[in-house]
Amino acid sequence: MAKTAKNGHRRRKPCKTLLVNFFGLPGEVLLDLPRLVMLGNNRMVVENHRGLLEYTEETVRIKTAQNGEIRVTGKGLNLLYMAREELGLAGRFLRIDLPGGEG
User: Fold this and answer.
1) How confident is the model at residue 100 (pLDDT cuts 50, 70, 90)?
2) Domain limits of the chain?
3) What sign for the dihedral angle of Cα 90, 96, 97, 98?
4) Which fold has domain 32-97?
């Protein structure tokens, strides 16, 4: 069922979202959703990123589509590589905050 906005009008789902749901396609393909692959607690690959917002040994903030961000907090964080749509991180991960995590 469509959600109702504060003004009483129904919000429509974007066409891409309907296609993804109808055909059962992976969301990261059409919707530019980030994809995280964890390798234990010390390596991570992030696909579909839009660049770095912050990079220190304790915090890495990664920009995602639709003005979202992934925040990785840890110790000894190290950027292993960064390509156009994929990056690799290493270190001791203590916390990972994902877009839309609140609410």
Assistant:
1) confident
2) 1-30, 32-97
3) positive
4) Immunoglobulin-like (2.60.40)
Can you give the pTM of this predicted structure? 0.69
Q: Which residues pair with 71 in a beta bridge?
A: 61, 97
Helix (H, G, I), strand (E, B) or coil at 8: coil
* Cα-Cα end-to-end distance for the chain: 19
pLDDT band at 103 (very low <50, low <70, confident <90, very high): very low
Task: Give phi and psi for 20, each to the nearest 5.
Answer: -60, -45
- Residues whose CB is less than 8 angstroms from the CB of residue 60 and which lie 6 or more positions away in sequence, other chains included: 52, 54, 71, 72, 77, 79, 89
CA 28/CA 47 separation, integer angstroms: 9
Chain CA centroid to CA 18, Å: 20
Bridge partners of residue 90, in order along the sequence: 43, 78
